[in-house]
Amino acid sequence: MIKTTAVVVGAGHAGLAMSRRLTERSIDHVVLERGEVADSWRTQRWPSLRLLTPNWQTRLPGHGYAGDDPDGYMPVADVVATLTDYARLVGAPVRTATTVYTVRGAPEGFEIRANGDVLHARAVVLATGACNLPAIPGIAGAVPPSITTLTPLSYRDPGQLPDGGVLVVGASATGVQLAGEIHRSGRPVTLAVGEHVRLPRTYRRRDIFWWMEATGLMAERYDQIDDLTRARHLPSPQLTGTPEAITTDLNTLTAQGIRIVGRLGRITDGVAQFSGALANTCALADLKMNRFLNRADEWATASDLDDDLPPPHRFAPTRVDPRTPLELDLTSGEITTVLWATGFRPDHSWLDIPVRDRTGHIRHDGGVVTGAPGLYVLAMPVLRTRASTYIHGAGADSEALAGHLHSFLSSRRGVR
Ligand SMILES: Cc1cc2nc3c(=O)[nH]c(=O)nc-3n(C[C@H](O)[C@H](O)[C@H](O)COP(=O)(O)OP(=O)(O)OC[C@H]3O[C@@H](n4cnc5c(N)ncnc54)[C@H](O)[C@@H]3O)c2cc1C
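The joint structure predicted for all components is written out below.
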């Protein structure tokens, strides 16, 4: 049995940021990582992935981007290198190749079983991420067996796909990026589009994430957001990071030759049926984008920046072909691959403490897990602010939760 004050599970950016915060407070801890530092970026992301957040925004406690391309978008290999360097910089006590199988309550804390070890800690921080498993709808079971199916976790590059048409389901960050890449490989691509968040890559010559920070959107706190459940389940923005900083909206994809169809609702006898509400779905996304651009313009005027920026403008509404098909016969041979770009979900199945709700999500108040004093969770969407969804959000979140954890330990010391 190994005794330590705190255990952090997962050595991604969030676990490492937390380690730094605990070290700052002289809290003895260990970071348990099933693979290597940044393992999900090494093993679960496709090689051509680039961050959709600009390099200047990839900042962690005690670390800022110092390269020569602050406005670029980091390829996945650079994310791995950045996090590996960061682990070294903060001296994170990471035990690699150590998979946590169980965390359960124990007298005065928690028992953690990892590989052959049993650890005992007074506090545990869950930093295993929000994107461990693909979120695939139940209708996936109705895809004819002759079709190859992939998820973003199993996708590497178009070379692994059979020849023929590809149906990409989901048009958020992952779907639009992979639809574009597969289309460029020469395969006909159909993209099924449900609810999505349309945003331009740049606006008035600034990256859209610059606007999101400047206007205060990113800093909006979880306890001040009207519909928090909805905010936490919002799809990722329809953005990609490319060297040319291009906008990857549906108009761009259509112009490239990608066929846009509505949300995939059902598959009956091998026939995929798409929603007829595509035009409405797109109109709503356009409306919400324009609402944000209005907010950006108002902020620029109020901040006296209009003279320094190009004038406001608006983007063309999403064009939807009225002849968009509502059905596609998956048995006809036209489609040989279905790629589910329908989101991700966390995997906390190894947590043997009753803190999850009916949908499997951990109940927490800004990362402080409900009903389990000493247990914390990090890097969930909109955990404490809208920035929590992104790498740079871990800075403030880890600071707040490490502060809470420190007070928790101090109060327990007082009790004994
Ligand atoms: C496709 C994709 C694109 C993204 N693009 C961006 C982007 O552009 N900008 C941005 O800011 N963020 C981006 N995100 C990242 C997002 O910020 C993070 O995935 C998320 O916030 C979680 O970060 P994390 O450090 O908690 O998790 P991860 O980076 O996933 O780290 C969790 C670690 O926990 C380990 N682990 C898991 N289970 C166990 C276990 N049982 N025992 C021990 N170790 C375990 C894993 O091996 C992993 O190393 C993207 C995510 C995805 C999936």
